[in-house]
Give the backbone structure.
Amino acid sequence: MEPDGATDDDGDGERTERKGGDIHGAGVYVGGLEWCDRAAAVVHIIIIGGGDIGYPLASALCTDHDVFLVDRDPLRAHRFSHLDVEFVAGSGTSPDVLRNAGVERCDLLIAATRLDELNIVACSIGSGLGAKRTICFVTKEDLLEQRSGDDSLHRNFGIDEIIWPEARLAAEIERIIMAPGAVDAELFAGGRVELLEFRLEADSPVVGREVASLALPAGVVIIALKHEHATLIPRGQTVLETGDKVVLMGTRDGMNRLRPVIAPASSNADSQMVTIIGGGDVGFRLAQKLDEADGIRLIVIERERERGELLAATLRRALILRGDGTDLELLESEEIGRSDVLVSVIDNDERNLLASLLGHQLGVRKVITRVSKPSNHHLFERVGIDVALSARGAAVASVVHGIDGGRSSLLAVLEEGQARVLELAVPGGFSPTAVRDLNLPPDSIIGSVLRQGSVVVPHGDDRVQGGDRLLVCCTEPAVPGVRDLFAAS
């Protein structure tokens, strides 16, 4: 794993030139983007730190926005050479380097190195030089608490948002747990539209059937399907198979009536038994949330005595077990196999994998596992882990989904970038047109239409009109065509 901070931006700026025009050094401008020719909706973003947070951020954002990546190590430029990213070699705390990255016209500055102090200073300097909004990544929970008040980081350093990745991971896991049977869950449009992803088990009533033959509830549509390693937009004749991941979008009411159709085993339970292995930062925060939730019976397994005592003193209803979550004898004696959900959030990939596999073997219905090394993500899913999540991934997703792109915004990245959910604004003067006549790219589908506070899950004859906002799912190659759908309107 490459470091994401200690050697990123905490040194002096360095002059660097490279033929081809995508490296900047302090005082050196090579190549560049024609700002005056770009659409007003494009956001100018500066990312400080080219490590394991900065890289996926740049990768996700560069397709739709002007992204400048600041890193003190010029040799890191090659890592971004295949992306539409302008690399600036130098320190993220250097005013000259930030000016070279266009800080005076910066809409969003993101400081994402591993050094909290560097991130704070970079945001402060960037804000003072003209950055309209700043996001600061931190590694310590206590900094997260300094978001408001007289001594807040916002008041003293101009920081608009603080992201502690572990908190974002805990929130994402909680959201998935609260959607029984699903392996992923997202909310859009202020909670009026829900996205759920299910892995089809052999006993699912929809296995072996064509999409067109499914009796889905009103207000629900299948927007994507992952079969083996490929993600596609399904058609009416697409046949669903065991092991497929099916992504659906719809109204909250429609989704509540969906589970008996897709995952009947999860729709009959009035409560869930949840076991958390690991009471560290993520496990502790998640346990606090679940301990307050209705219908959750919670068990936390923690091997450190002091941490276990803290958990026991803090949580009111949870059962705290002191022991090793990879100890098969302990898991069997405590009947952990009866859990509806097992969450393994130990700060070690190998132990997480072992605990998760043991949980699967004992019969746990859904296993959610923390994975720290990006290279391990595919391995975890390949061996049968239902949901593999990382703190970095959850934090990156929260940033990407929060950026408003004007006429089009990225709401969600599905299946590691193979598909995306976009929100498109239909121009006010657009003539009402049936969905079937919109000339959408082949690998795309409209999941929902937002219109004057209401949600419509459209069929081919339903009309799109000026002022609507469309939630569109498409594969990665179809993104440009979807974004250009109303370009001439």
Q: What stands out?
A: The chain has three domains: 23-163, 272-395, 396-483. Confidence is low (pLDDT under 50) at residues 1-40. The two ends are 46 Å apart (CA to CA). The first strand starts at residue 23 and ends at 24.
